[in-house]
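It would be a great kindness if you could assist me with a short task in structural biology. The matter concerns a single protein, recorded as an amino acid sequence and a row of backbone structure tokens. Could you please explain, in whatever detail you think fit, how the structure tokens follow from the sequence? Thank you for your consideration; the sequence and its tokens are set out here:
___
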Amino acid sequence: MAIPKNITKEHLLKAISKIDIEGIPKDSDSQFYDVVYDEKKYPPKVIVSYANLFANGEIIDRNSFAGGLNTECFNLLELNGFKIFKKEMGKSKEIILEIVRLCQTIADGRDNGSITQSTYTTIFRPYLDRFEENYSVSPNLFLQKELKKFYTAHLTGISPQIAYKILVIGGDHSTITLDMHFL
């Protein structure tokens, strides 16, 4: 979807105010870039999505337009004087490293015989439960979302669709197998 041309800086500022009041919607924090305004960080696509509410009466679905460098979204923000900064990998890197540690734990357990199909629930499942408690998502779903975000930000011109298949950590799988293919 094309971003409407009538969105102004005033609409963008109202969107930022809405975020300040209501917070960033769940699962909509930006992955690679932030708009920094008044020393606070905001997700660029949420700002533009909300700005349309003030310009045209409806919130634009963030999945209907691209974010990232040289996109309509970023161009609109930059043309209106907003500064966009690349995010540090920080939190995503921490979570991915935790997933790698989980894979190593199950691989080691399978190699030394401490994790088998019959002991999986008592020995390894608590690690997965703790991960889900800490990050509010399963390792598999986290990786699927990360791959989708990366695809959206960096590979949108390659294929109109991409499928992600991530095999479950646990059971008979000692590693994560990523199967990405273009449809």
